[in-house]
Amino acid sequence: MITSPSSRRRSERSRKATLEAALGLCAEKGYARVTVEAIAARAGVSKKTIYRWWPSKGAVMLEAFTEGLLDATPFTDTGDIAADLRTHICAAVRLLSTSPFGPAYAGILSEVHHDDALAKAVREDLVEPRFACAVERLRRAGEQGQIPADADLPLAVEMLYGPVYYRHVLRKPPQDEATVAALVEHVLRSLGARET
Questions:
Q1: Is the distance from CB of 19 to CB of 64 less than 8 angstroms?
Q2: In whole angstroms, what is the distance from residue 112 CA to residue 132 CA?
Q3: What is the DSSP letter of 32?
Q4: Span 82-109, pLDDT tens digits
Q5: How far apart are CA 120 and CA 21, in angstroms?
Q6: Is residue 195 pLDDT above 80, yes or no?
Q7: Which of 20, 170, 175 is closest to 94 using CA atoms?
Q8: For the domain 56-191, what is the CATH superfamily, name and number?
Q9: In 10 A of CB 57, how many CB atoms?
Q10: Which residue stretches, if any, does this entry annotate as coiled coil (predicted)?
Q11: Contact by Cβ (8 Å): 85, 184
Q12: Contact residues for 187 (Cβ-Cβ < 8 A; gap 6+)
């Protein structure tokens, strides 16, 4: 006898289809022109289903963007903090420079100024966990003797990633690998890191 998929698997399939639809429409139409109705139609789910899982279009886009960011930018530890930061930041720059992720994130950031719930979700679901991962990677580098024990790690994270998002928000050309390498070298030198 053939059994039907569990409701959980159907829900996961619908969730993935919704996220893919949101990103696809963003690439085709631009963030501002995407509607929840269009996402539902593309994903083959009801509008009611989307609103059961997400409070807004921005929340759908945030989840889609966050999943893409996590997949594209893991925090690896090769034992060389400078190389690992260069790899990580270059991956983030590439993601923000490509459609649909760059336009989706720009749209999300434009909405946080008038959507308090989305602003809170961006902080709690995206920024704070990624910030904590970056601090943890720098902390491990400190344990390995690559960064002084008294280095201000949260400030270092802001110094490393601030220029990436500054350029993205202002639609300036993204950093190339040489610019990222210079940024990483400058920040690590300011921390008093030893050269590897």
A1: yes
A2: 21
A3: G
A4: 999 999 999 999 999 999 999 999 999 9
A5: 24
A6: no
A7: 175
A8: Tetracycline Repressor, domain 2 (1.10.357.10)
A9: 24
A10: none
A11: yes
A12: 156, 159, 160
Q: What is the torsion angle, in degrees rounded to the nearest 10, for the CA atoms of residue 69, residue 71, residue 73 and residue 75? A: 130
For residue 101 the two structure tokens come to 């992720």
Task: Give me the pLDDT at residue 196, please.
Answer: 54
pLDDT, residue 5, reads 42
How confident is the prediction for the chain on average, in pLDDT? 92
Rounded to whole angstroms, the Cα distance separating 58 from 43 reads: 16
DSSP conformation class of 192: T
Residue 147: CB atoms within 10 A of its CB come to 21
**Alpha helices, H only, the chain:** 7-29, 36-43, 47-53, 57-72, 81-97, 101-111, 116-121, 128-143, 153-169, 177-191
Give me the helix-helix angle, 101-111 and 7-29, nearest 10°.
90
pLDDT tens-place string over residues 127-146: 999 999 999 999 999 999 99
pTM, whole model, 2 decimals?
0.88
pLDDT score of 34 more than 80: yes
Match 């008038």 to its residue by tokens.
114
Helices (H), 30-77: 36-43, 47-53, 57-72
**In a 3-state reduction of DSSP, which class is residue 129?**
helix
Q: Is 185 exposed, middle or buried (0-12, 13-18, 19+ CB in 10 A)?
A: middle
